[in-house]
Amino acid sequence: MAVAVRNGLRGVAAALLATGLLATAVLAGPALGDTALTLVNGPEELELSIDDLAAMPLTTIATENEFVDGKVVYRGPLVREVLARVGLDKAENVRFVAANDYYVDIPTQNFRDYDAILAFEADGERLSRRDKGPVWLMYPISDHPELHDPIYSRRLIWQVVKITSE
Question: Could you list the residue range(s) of the whole structural domain that residue 8 is in?
Answer without folding.
Answer: 1-29
